[in-house]
Specification:
Elements lengths: L3 E4 L1 H5 L8 H12 L3 E5 L4 H11 L4 E4 L4 E3 L5 E4 L4 H11 L6 E6 L2 E4 L4 H4 L10 E2 L10 E7 L3 H15 L3 E7 L2 E6 L4 H11 L7 E5 L5 H6 L2 E4 L5 H6 L13 H10 L1
Parallel strand pairs: 1-2, 1-12, 2-3, 7-8, 12-13
Antiparallel strand pairs: 3-4, 4-5, 6-7, 6-9, 9-11, 10-11
Helix pairs in contact: 2-10
Length: 265
Amino acid sequence: MYKIVASDLDGTLLTPDHQIAPFTRDTLQRLHQQGEHFVFATGRHHVDVAGIREKVGIPAYMITSNGARVHDADDNLVFSRNVEPDLVAEIIKMVKDDETLACHMYRDEDWLLSKVDEELEKFHTESGFSFDYFDLNQPPVDNIAKLFFIRHDHEYLARYETMLNDTFGDRISVAFSTPFCLEVMGAGVSKGMALEAVAKMKGFALSDCIAFGDGMNDVEMLSAAAKGLVMATAQDRVKATLPNNEVIGSNAEEAVAHYLEKHML
């Protein structure tokens, strides 16, 4: 039996309106009472996730910013890896003249963005987490967990994905959390790497882990865990990358909670 359950949030554990549904909350509480360890594993900021964790009502580790930050159940920072300051400056320089992109950064306790992005605000109604603005001509470069760029044109963002990888190589990690959100973290950062670190902290191994996800930023975690479950609504690129992974239902059906109830409770 698996001892650690790790799950992505948006598109996976949360409903389509980005909420924790009652059945999912009750299932996670029962899982905790049974002695299993739950881990939130998301691209979101840790302040945001802490608010969601409080509503679920269980102690849980939080893998956030796609693995750039890990906090324990008491909110202690136990792992951190930033994007190098010079790379932050170079990446901002690469995109700052593109007025079609909204540029976001997570830094320490802050969510910073370059211009209004009303679409993203609805992701945070559960936690109440909000943002401040920064100047693209004078961007902060220290303690940046990740940068991300929003545009509702996947092919357009995919060109930036190629450009970033070609320019910076293995000095950064690049992944799509949704088809319309391209994310940039420090070298080697992924949810899979962070999950391995959490497992070791708890005295377990990746062979003790089961994981759920739907985005390209979940692929390393779904590959690293002993069992990685892919959501039915996952990006096609995820399913193509992980053709042998089991596919379950959708987040609208609370498929993660139903799977856990059937197989682990």
